[in-house]
Protein 1
Amino acid sequence: IHKCLEVASGSQLTALKAIFASSSRIPILVSGPFGSGKTRILARAAYEFAMDGLRRHNTTRILICAHHPASTQTYITDYFDEISVLDNKWRREVKVVRITRGIFRRDSHYNSYFRNLSQFRREISEEKYLHEKCLVIVTTYMTSLQLLSIIKCDDWSFTHILLDEAAQVREPEAIAPLCLAGKESKIVIVGDSKQVGPALVVLGQQAHENGLAVSLLERLQKKYKGYGGDAEQYLKILTDGYRCNEDITNFLSTLFYNRKVKSRVQVPTHPRAKFPFVFYCCDVDRTVRAPQEPAFDVEADAVLQQLKHYFHHRWPRDWGEQNMNDLSVITPMRNQVNLIRKKLDGQLKKVNV
C-alpha cells in the first residue's frame, strides 16, 4: 500500500477492517481523539473502495464530507494527489473532484481538482461525471446539500458516503449528504465528540431540549452502546495518538478520555521548557491598560512575548534551520486572529495564525 495510506496495526487497523466487513445497511461509527488517524482511515477506505470497484468492474461513487474547507483540502494534498503520482491505475481511472468555495494558490496544480458549485452545475448539465466508472467527490457538509439539487437523476446515488468531523456539525448538516445515498450505500461516520461540537452554536433552550445540541455521531454512539451485543461491532474507538508529545497526550487523555488514549510517537520538548505545554495567565483584570483598550490586546502581547521567548531568540539547534512557518498560533476568535497577525513583525510575520 502507498505510504501515505499506511495505517498502524492497533486500533486504526481494527477500525479499517470493521469498515470493510460491516453491512451496508448499518452505518459504522469510528470515534477517536485528535491525531488518532481518523482522516487517514477514511482516505484509505476511499482508496480501497475505489480499487475494489475497478477490479469488480462496478460503478463506484464516493462522497467524502468534512466540516471545514481546510479538511477537504487535506484529502487532496496529503492523500489523493500523492496517490495519483504513485498509482497509474488510480490516475487513469479514478476521477477526484473537490467542490468548495475557495481555491488553492492561483498557480497551484491542486486547482485541477477544484470546482465551485457553478462549475460543477454546468458540467453536470453537460452529463460530465454522471457516467464515470469511479468518482470521488470531496466537499463540506453544507455544500453537499447543494449537490442534491444539482444531481437530479433519480437512479443516481453514491455507493459510499464517508463523513469526517461528524461530531462538530449539527445533526441536520450531517444528514444532508445522506440524502444522496441509495438503498445499498455504505455509510461511515467519523469524529470526536470531545471536541467543540454543535452545542456551542445551537442557541435557545427549546433547540437544546429537542436534541439539536447533540451531533449525529454522538447520538448514534449512545444508541449503539445502548443496544449492546452485535450493535457494538459497528462502533470502533481509536485509542492511539500519533501527533503530540506524550505528556500532552496523557494530560488530555486524563481530562477528557478516561485515560484511554496512549501516545505512540516521540516528540521532543523545547529545550527551554520544563514541560511540553505552559499555562500563561494574562490576568487581564489586574493589568493596567487604557480604559478603551480591550483584553484582546493584553492577550495578543502575551502571545508575542512567548513567541520571542521560545523561538525568535532561542530556536533549538536540534530543530535545524530556523523556520517560523513551522510555528502556529491558534485562537478561536477572528478578532484575536487579526490582532495577533497585525502585531507580528520581522521574522515573526511568517508564523501561521
Protein 2
Amino acid sequence: SSGINAEYGGVAGIVAARYFKDVFRVTLYEASSTIGGVWQYTKDKNITKHTPMYKNLRSNLPKQLMTFRDLQYEQDSPTFLTHEQVMDYLHSYCNKFNISDVVSFNTHVSCVKPDTYSGDVKWIVSTANETQEVFDAVAVCTGRYDTIDFPQVPGLDTYSGKYIHSKEYSSPDLHEGEHVLIVGARASGIDLLIDLRECGVRADISHRKPAPCNGLPEGVIQYKQPVLFEDDKVYFEGDDHGYKFDTIIFATGYGTNLDFIHPDCMIQTDVIPRPLYKFALNPKYPSMA
C-alpha cells in the first residue's frame, strides 16, 4: 500500500490519520510530545507555551458541533467543554483507533518538496532531526494558531512596558493586582477580558470598532485603537493623554507560517496558502492537501 504523511497531531491531523490508516501506510509527524494541537495546556511556568490554551478556557462551540461521528462525548459532560475534557476526548479517539502507532512525536518538519523525476509525483519530507522520507501523498494539518501577529504601531518595538500576545496568556493568577489592557475585541480578546475580570483583575480593552462593545463586564473602559507607544505609555486614537498599564495583552490574531513548503510545491504561502482547489487540494499536485 502507498505511504501517506500528515502533519501535525492536532485535531485535523489525527482525524486524517484515522481514515488514511484504514487504507494506506501512514506517518503522522508531531512537533510536540503529545497529540492535541491547540488544546494542549502547559501548567508549568518554566516551560514556554506553544499553544493559545489557558487555565480557564472553555469551548465557545457546543460539544454537539465538536463530536466526531465515530466517538461520542460522555452524556453527562457539559455543553461547553473545558480544555481538559476536550483533550481527554482526543486521547480517547486516538486510543480507540490506535493513532499513536503511526505518530512520530517531537519531530518538526523542515521541508516538504515534490519529486517528479520518476514520472509519478512523490513527496520528500525532511525533518529537523535530519531524517528524510519519501511519501506518495502529504496532508498539511498544521493549523492557524501558531505564528503570533502584533499590530504595526509606532514605538511598540521600543516600548519599555510589559506586553504579551494572547497566545502567551496562561492564567489570571499571574496578573493579580495589575491593571491589564486587552488590545483587540474579537473572540479571544473578549474571552480574556472576562476571564481577568471574573477573577478580580482590573482589565480594560482597546479596539478599532466604530462603536462600543455591548455586554462587557461592568466598569470596563473601552479605549480606541493604540496609535503610539512611547517609553512606558500608550496613546490611543483621538486622545493626547498617555496611559500606563502593568501588562498589555495583544489579542490581535495570527499570521501564517508555512515556510516548510518548498517553492516547487507551486503554492504561495505568504498570507494564506493559494491556489487551492476547494480550499484543500493543490491543483498542480493533487496528492498534496
